Amino acid sequence: MRALLLSSPAETHELGRRLGVALPPGACLALSGDLGAGKTALVRGIAEGLGVPSLIQSPTFVLVQIHEGGRLPLWHADLYRLGDASELDELGLDAMAPETVLAIEWASRFPELLPADRLEIRLEDAPRGRRAELSATGARHAALEGLDV
Ligand SMILES: Nc1ncnc2c1ncn2[C@@H]1O[C@H](COP(=O)(O)OP(=O)(O)OP(=O)(O)O)[C@@H](O)[C@H]1O
Ligand SMILES: [Mg+2]
User: Fold this and answer.
1) The whole model's pTM is what?
2) Where in the chain are the domains?
3) Which residue of 5, 32, 46, 140 shows the fewest CB atoms closer than 10 Å?
């Protein structure tokens, strides 16, 4: 586990950007934290680090948004409005290419949908900014805990 203090929105973005530069093919980032914690802000940074040219929006009514054109494809999911795990199965996360990076907001709502090997990122309010906690659950993501930030 690695804990970081992010004292401004720019630092949240920069953590994402560095992750985006370092992510291995097939990475899964399971993001959790309250409304407005900074999950989407982090994904914007990740997209920049991957070189994704398109705009990252809050998925709101779209469960998964696909962004091509970066170093690796980025699938951005938001499970906030997902009622049942089977709804996501229908969307076919299985159709993801193996090198795809998956960033999931509100991941902790459906732990059964998550790959066993992932990087969990918890964001929470801190007296000045946000506290980010990074925990790898398997070998593929272990090195990311030691990210140079
Ligand atoms: N380290 C930080 N310190 C202070 N404010 C921050 C920090 N990081 C991000 N923010 C601000 O917090 C808000 C985060 O909004 P964002 O949409 O990313 O949250 P979210 O976790 O995706 O919320 P939701 O659950 O609604 O999807 C933005 O207004 C952003 O500027
Ligand atoms: Mg969001």
Assistant:
1) 0.96
2) 2-146
3) 5
